[in-house]
Amino acid sequence: MCGIFGFTLKDSAIEPERRAILAATLARLNDERGGDSWGVCRLESESPHVHRGLTTLADHVGVLLGSPRLFAHTRWATHGKVTIENAHPFAVNGIIGAHNGIVYNHYDLAKKYNRSYEVDSQHIFAHLSVGADMGEIEGYGAIEWVVVGKPEMYLCRLVEGELAIAGVGGDLDHPLGVVWSSDADHLEDAFAAAGLDWFPYQVRTGIVYEPRETGLFISGPKIEITKRKYVPIVKGAYSDDPNWQRYLRARYGEGTTRASSDSTATVESSRRPRKTKQTRRTTKWLRADEGAASDAIAEQITAERMQRIIDAKSPPVVTGDLVDVGGNRRL
């Protein structure tokens, strides 16, 4: 399981300190869903700038500062080695995108289309880039992407995916921007930590959304992939991929090394195990004086650490070029 998040904000509407706290909190919470690698796509003057690295994003949170429009990904590998080259986002035929979820028929698609992708998620953006039938893809999740040379960002919750989107500020008709994350609790905690008003948007499966400074808009036709057909059994294919084994063990229990439609086992949760919150807030509107960040966030985001974040002058230099695997164009 992975994590995705991002935002598009009115540049001068939110103080740098609040924006830094918002970004740092989202990074830390999504690291709980990742931890193997991370990637950030910053949109500056309609040109995407991608930064990627290994381990956790919270340790490189400076890459999230200075740009009011970006999306990010934290990877927990299921297909492919843990390398910078396999970190999301990927560039495929002019699309730069990240995916939280799994494509179960990864190997079948690779064989059918003669693709040599290590990571299953790349099939989604390959299909999108050429207008192929998205119903061929079996899996679940949520995606975020841009098209090189265009200013728009796009979001979509695929079948059985996890994606929460919120508007910034207290005015539904005139928001200060849009923020999203894999988990609604992430947004609640991040806005509380930053002391910002917010309101939730309804997110429907398959709808393509375009987040703008002025709100959330529907854009383009629905994206409908096929609901997963696989449930676990004990032995068989995929057993040579250690990350796939790790995923199945974490999700279904020890001894599981294959996914197959032959089993009658049921699937109850698609979420990677994470620490249970001691407190959960249920209010849809939060102000700085109506609730503080959870104890865990307050302990981790100390004043000293936040000052280092705010003082960061530029993103860290990350090795590993982003190569467009569709046309071999280096971005």
Order of helices and strands: EHEEEEEHHEEEEHEEEEEHEHHEE
Q: What structural category arises from helix and sheet content? A: alpha+beta
Architecture of the largest domain in CATH? 4-Layer Sandwich
The CATH class label of the largest domain is Alpha Beta
Q: How many helical elements?
A: 7
Identify low-pLDDT runs.
Answer: 231-239, 256-302, 312-320, 327-331
- Round the Cα radius of gyration to an integer and report it: 19 Å
Domain module tally: 2
Proportion in helices: 10-25%
Average pLDDT, to the nearest integer? 78
Q: How is the main sheet built? A: 7 strands, antiparallel
Gap between N and C termini, in Å?
27 Å
* Overall 3D form: globular
Number of strands: 18
- Which topology of the largest domain does CATH recognise? Glutamine Phosphoribosylpyrophosphate, subunit 1, domain 1
Q: CATH superfamily membership of the largest domain, which one?
A: Aminohydrolase, N-terminal nucleophile (Ntn) domain
